[in-house]
Amino acid sequence: MTHGIIRNTLLQLNKVMRNKKLVQKRLRTLQGQLKTLDMQIHRGGSREGINEAQRTITETVQDIVDIIEREA
Question: What backbone torsions phi and psi does residue 43 show, to the nearest 5 degrees?
Answer without folding.
Answer: -120, 25
